[in-house]
Every structure is written in C-alpha cells, then in structure tokens.
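Deliverable D2.4 — example input (structure tokens):
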C-alpha cells in the first residue's frame, strides 16, 4: 500500500542519514582526535520507528474505522494504527506529523459528529491502553485512556471499592469522556468526573514539530496546571494525544482505597411510565413542570436529595408511552423517603405505572441498560442544553405540540431530561474548563434510525423541536438566567450554522461560556501547528 511504502522510504532515508553522520564522525576522529570529533558532530534527530498501519484490505478495517454513530463510517483511503505502548503512540504521532497526515485518536468512538472519522488519514486506536493501577509517584490511580467507563468502574470497584462519577453508558471511552467534562449517576453527590482528575499523561507536538510526553498535574503551578485545566472540559480530540488519566479527589499520598469516592453497595432503580393515551395536554405539562420544579428546589446540600439521579425520557406519542428512570443509594439516610416524595411530586394525580428493584451497584452500573439508550449499530443525531430553571409555559406548549401529536413518527426520538446540580454546582465555573456550574437539568436530545434515505426526515424533526424550544434566544440555549449553553460531549455541528443558530453566539460561546477565550489561547500554545484538529476545537 502507498502509505506503507512511504513509511518504509522515510525509514530508509533516515538510516542513510545516520550512516553519513557516522562516516563524518569517524573521519573527524582520524584527522583531529576524539575531542574535535565530538565537537564537530552535528545534532540529528533519532528517527522514530514506523508504526504498524493497515488499510481497507485488512480484516480489521471495517470494524475499527467506524464509531458509534453509523452515519460516520470513515474513509476507504484512511489508515489505522493500534499502539500498544507510549512509544508506539509517539511513533504514530511522529509518522502523521512527518507526512502531513490528518490525525485523530479513537478511544470509545462515541463522538456524535464526524470529528474522528470523516477526512481522517490516520486513526490512532487507543483501545489497548487499558492498564489500571496505583501510581505511587503521583499519589493517584492511573487509568489508561483506552478504557471504557464500564471497564474503569469494574477495575476501580473490584480492586479498591471506589469509583469516579462518570457517565451511564458503559461502552463510552475515557479518552473522550474525561476531557469533555463527563457526568453521570453519582455526579449530584460527587461532582463531575473531572472534579476528581489529578492529572493526565499526554503527547504534545511543539513549535519545532518535536513530540514530547508530559504529565499535566492539578497540583502544579504554571504551564503544567494550565494544561491540566484545558483537559477538564475543553473537549476531546485536541491539544494532544492522551495516554492515561490520574484520578484522585484531592492531592496527597494516600492509599488507593482513600483517594476516590466509595462506590455505593446497592442502589434502588425505579421506573415510572405514562401512557400517552392516559394524558391530556395539561396533565403532560404538569408532569414535566413538576420534574423541573423539584430539581430547582433540591439542588442544595441534602445528602438524600443529592444521591437521587433521574432521567425523564420524553418520547413522541408514536412510542405509546414515556418513562422516568430514577436511581438512589438506599444507605444514605432518608434516601427512600426522598425517592417516594420525588416520585409523588412528579406523578401527582396522573395515571402512571411504577416498578422498582434493588441491585448491587456494579451490576446496576455496567450490566443493565437502565440509563443508557445508545445503540452503536444505528444512525443518530443529537443535541444538548443546560437548563438553570425548568421549562417555561411556552416551552411546555412546544413540547406537547410536537411530541404529543403524530407528526414525529419515529418512536426512537427522545428528549432526555437528566438531573443535574448538587455537588457539581459547588465548583466555580473558572476552576475547571467546564463552565456550566449553575444548571439543574441537562438535556440530551437524540433520535435513532437505520436507513440513510431517512436522514433528512429525522434530523429535520430534531432541529424543529430544538429551535422551537429556544426560539426566543435564536434557536439555541444561550447563557442567560434560564439556560447555560451546550455540552461539548454531545457535539452538534448545527451550532455553526446561521440557519439553526441565529443567536449571534458562536459554538465556543455555547460550549465554554466565559472560559472559551482562555481555552483557545491554551490550545494555540500547546498545539501550535494544529495537529489535533476537528470542526469544533476550542
């Protein structure tokens, strides 16, 4: 293949260069003596090994080139490399830099848009970076960037009984989830996953195109802490290639069982389901309004309220019903009474069907699909919004008009309202790169389908609902008293479209708010040649 032929030619050229330097050095030694020879020897770069790359003829290609969204399958001309060590990863970056290839790293592959697939010439698949252990030097638990959330939770729990408050989809990779500022079922109690990030090991390309490995640390001052800060919500796929993460809630040498939150022993998972045929317009709006009202009133310090995590999954009438899933730690004092009060507040006088079960925490987290709706075999489109308050009456009208009618024929269309706030909102917006520290609800709007011929229909329905909900602010949730922008972890290229974003605010404003300018400066500093780029870098 052309790429392999080019790589071998680079290697041969480097070997010839080294032989010439050896001849010159030997000649200098013979004529002038050893001291003069050392002084005369020019400084040359040691060539990196050529990484093992493969293309479309390899039986792994079709599987490894695609991500979780079947809309983005990658290019037939792209090449893939699977590094097994830091040295391999460094060689891969060097190879891409030397050849001017567009590079992208792949961890779990859950990017909503095409950032890690379309137009990529070399995909660096990091899935073999799965080592988990206690790093004595840094006093933190080290987790490879190729681990999925499920693998991470399992390793941390089985070894030390601890966890990190990350997302609820077990197949999402840490490599994208952490720098995106990921959140999950324990975040109201313990904060975001980046609130427990002590550091990250990363490969950078400097102004002289040299690749260097460094560890960005929270505890340091100056450039190291600046780099750490940029990785706490600035988004994946930029600045450099992360090889591992270091987790510890606070800095200091301790045992691994003490440096992260203890995982719950058990959880209660409950489901409340409403049939559309049992709901009038006013009843539907009362349910959605009550959900937001409760979260507004319970984003404070109450441990029992903070331990409650909920998703209200609004689906169209064609789905027949919609559901509220809730999880709580029963060992927190007052937790079960808080769950009962919460559900009664939302259900009120409506007709609903409730069920509940108690499960061991790890089983509930990685072996059930209670809070995960992703299907990595299907096409999908997603959008996001942070809300500081519940929906207005006008927004509730919009939700009912569009979901309560039969206009949206696809039942796999979801507006997922997820509980937020609690511990998350105790952190100042500038303490990490994640600006959104005042919200009570985070929404993931998502629709799944199978056939490319239906793309326009499903994407149009999603855009219509989203732009109508935020019509008073240009079709997007701008930062104001009611909303707090969008989530880079649910990337949405529509934010760059003047047709769908008429707010006057850029995607950077919506993702990063008051942190956007500093993030842009840091990205320019640490990636001066734009080696790690996609359509929505900071």
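Example output (designed residues):
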């Amino acid at each position: 293949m052309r790429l392999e032929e080019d790589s071998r030619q680079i290697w041969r050229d480097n070997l010839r260069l080294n032989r010439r330097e050896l001849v010159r050095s030997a000649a200098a030694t013979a004529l002038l003596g050893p001291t003069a020879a050392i002084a005369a020897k020019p400084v040359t770069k040691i060539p990196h090994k050529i990484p093992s790359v493969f293309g479309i003829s390899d039986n792994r290609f079709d599987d490894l080139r695609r991500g979780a969204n079947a809309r983005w399958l990658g290019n037939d001309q792209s090449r893939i490399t699977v590094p097994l060590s830091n040295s391999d990863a460094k060689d891969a970056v060097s190879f891409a830099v030397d050849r001017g290839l567009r590079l992208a790293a792949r961890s779990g592959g859950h990017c909503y848009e095409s950032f890690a697939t379309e137009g990529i010439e070399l995909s660096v698949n990091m899935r073999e970076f799965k080592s988990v252990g206690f790093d004595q030097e840094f006093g933190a638990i080290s987790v490879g960037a190729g681990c999925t959330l499920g693998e991470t939770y399992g390793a941390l729990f089985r070894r030390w009984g601890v966890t990190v408050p990350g997302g609820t989809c077990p197949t999402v990779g840490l490599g994208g989830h952490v720098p995106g500022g990921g959140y999950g079922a324990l975040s109201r109690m313990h904060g975001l996953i980046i609130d427990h990030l002590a550091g990250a090991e990363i490969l950078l390309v400097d102004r002289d195109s040299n690749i260097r490995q460094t560890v960005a640390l929270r505890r340091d001052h100056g450039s190291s802490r600046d780099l750490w800060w940029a990785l706490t919500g600035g988004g994946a796929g930029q600045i450099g290639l992360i090889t591992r993460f270091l987790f510890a809630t606070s800095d200091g040498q301790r045992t691994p069982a003490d440096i992260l939150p203890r995982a719950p022993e058990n959880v209660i998972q409950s489901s409340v389901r409403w049939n559309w045929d049992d709901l009038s317009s006013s009843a539907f709006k009362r349910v959605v309004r009550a959900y937001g009202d409760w979260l507004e009133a319970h984003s404070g310090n109450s441990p029992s309220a903070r331990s409650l995590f909920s998703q209200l999954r609004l689906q169209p009438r064609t789905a027949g019903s919609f559901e509220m899933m809730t999880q709580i730690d029963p060992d927190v004092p007052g937790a079960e009474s808080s769950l009962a009060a919460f559900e009664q507040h939302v259900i009120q006088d409506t007709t609903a069907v409730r069920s509940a079960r108690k499960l061991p925490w790890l089983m509930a987290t990685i072996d059930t699909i209670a809070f995960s709706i992703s299907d990595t075999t299907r096409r999908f489109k997603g959008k996001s919004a942070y809300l500081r308050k519940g929906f207005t009456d006008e927004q509730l009208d919009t939700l009912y008009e569009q979901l309560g009618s039969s206009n949206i024929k696809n039942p796999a269309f979801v507006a997922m309202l997820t509980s937020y706030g609690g511990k998350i909102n105790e952190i100042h917006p500038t303490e990490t790169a994640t600006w959104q520290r005042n919200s009570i609800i985070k929404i993931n709007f998502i629709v799944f389908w199978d056939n490319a011929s239906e793309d326009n229909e499903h994407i149009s329905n999603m855009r219509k609902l989203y732009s109508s909900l935020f019509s008073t602010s240009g079709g997007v949730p701008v930062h104001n008293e009611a909303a707090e922008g969008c989530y880079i972890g649910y990337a949405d290229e529509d934010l760059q479209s003047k047709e769908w974003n008429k707010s006057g605010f850029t995607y950077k404003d919506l993702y990063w708010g008051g942190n956007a300018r500093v993030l842009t400066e840091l990205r320019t500093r640490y990636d001066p040649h734009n080696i790690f780029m996609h359509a929505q870098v900071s």
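The longest helix spans residues 2-32.
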